[in-house]
Specification:
With about 525 residues, the chain is of the alpha/beta class. The protein is built from 18 helices and 16 strands. The protein has helices at about 5-30, 40-60, 65-80, 80-100, 105-125, 130-150, 155-170, 175-180, 185-205, 250-260, 285-295, 330-340, 355-360, 380-390, 405-410, 420-430, 470-485, 500-510; strands at about 235-245, 260-270, 275-285, 300-305, 315-325, 340-345, 365-370, 395, 435-440, 445, 450, 455-460, 465-470, 490-495, 515-520, 530-535. The strands form four sheets. A six-stranded mixed sheet has the order 13-12-9-16-14-15, with helices on both faces. The protein has a four-stranded antiparallel sheet with strand order 2-3-1-4, sandwiched between helices. Strands 6-5-7-8 form a four-stranded parallel sheet, with helices on both faces. Strand 2 and strand 3 (about 275-285) form a beta hairpin. Helix 17 (about 470-485) runs parallel beside helix 18. The chain starts with 6 loop residues before the first helix and ends with a strand. Residues about 215-235 have low confidence and may be disordered.
Length: about 525
Amino acid sequence: MVQALDDGAVGLWYRTAVEVLSESRGRLDDLNVFPVPDGDTGTNLLLTAQAAVAALDAEGQRTTESAWSVLARGAVLGARGNSGTILAELLRGLADQLAGQPPADGPAFAAALKKASEAAYGAVADPEEGTFLTVARAGGEAAVAAVDQGRTELADVVRAAADGARVALEATPGQLAALREAGVVDAGGAGLCLVLDALVTTVTGVEPARPPLARRDDGHRHSGEHLPHPPPAGPGSEVQYLLADADEEAVARLHERLAALGDSLVVVGVDTPTGREWNVHVHVADVGAAIEAGIEAGRPHRISVTPLAPVQPSAPVHGTRAIVAVAPSDGLAALFTGEGVRVVTCGPDGVGEEDLLREVISSTAHEVVILPNDAGLLPVAARAAGRAREAGREIGVVPTRSPVQGLAAIAVSDPARRFGDDVIAMAEAAAATRWAEVTVADQEALTSAGRCRPGDVLGSAEGDVVVIGRDLASVACELLDRLLSAGAEMATLVVGADDILGDAVCRHLATVHPTIEVSRYAGGPSGVPLQVGVE
């Protein structure tokens, strides 16, 4: 009988937990219906526990650091998925209380488990009852209650924690509709019960007698389509990465931004030999925005992106072709639609991979061309194209960096051509179109044309500022003169809300460049008074 948890006992506990989770991984995966029914909770818990033990194996013989600290660091840096990240936070909370202290007896462990469960609640942006968190809290409260009742032996305390967690687990279907309708207990909470039972086995030498984990209805492997009322699918992808070189304020800002972008957000920090690192986990529709938020906060690495609610592919109709374009405004959307193009309108949060993939799949076309029409959306389009190919589509991404390049590509499209040849022709037309735009600076900055101040009018060509002035029409005309000085046959103008600007630019072209063919369109995006394409 173990009287106190020293380094050896702590290591043995987690090795036992790995064995138990390995045996039960499939059953835990079967229970997984919340927050999304992706069937990986057991796998993620196992991988997280294995990462903790691997760190102990690698560092335990070479350091005087507490086993609590080494295990916690390995768990946090190797945590996988929502439940795995919360398990790592629970272990880190225990390490915060017990590392560097005498071996933990019953009262010490009870107090530490209760505080660790509270810390786990704090790591989750929107904690739900009926989940891993509820089970962890119940375990901590039961352990403290045992001590309060005079049962202070470590064996009594860990049994009380495991039993209290199990009672809370059985109650989870009454707290979450998704569990109740599926006839299951919470998968993450079930995994934690196994980890606590492994602790009982370590301390007492006797494995607790528990009924096997199984579905409450028939014990068969679950599949989302067989649930009576399957829970709604979450956002499109699970994004997880480690974040280094970030301070607490930057992480706080990251937490706020990711909370606004998605859900199932868990951020867990741990000290490492090279400084503090965080494990960041979130479910989002816009993968790029979640990663960019990490780049702004520090240095994200070991980035993983896993589809959570993949678009269900419908069978493509062979011999059919479609073009999918991103439009940054309703006016441009109408313009593209009028050309027979399927449109994804760019909202306040941009366009995500799922948005493009959904439009590609819903077109039912076998051959699809994607026009991102924004340099920042090229990687998003590439990822969507890769997933669409897996769904049986033939996809071509034309790297259009502006809507005017998209218009040029559409103008040469010919569905009678071989698909590959048509994509090449569209790409060549887009590449031959120099693009530019007129905007108004909202802050002081140093540009390639010099320093600008708020309110200055900026003329940009291919993304670089080349003209700075105070008058929209003057800057627009000078910008066009520069673009046309190298020779051209056609100019495409997409005018925003200022029709007077459009009139002034057209008069200038008619007077100074009378041989240029001009196509003018309204409905440009808000904040961009003029977009220009020159062919």
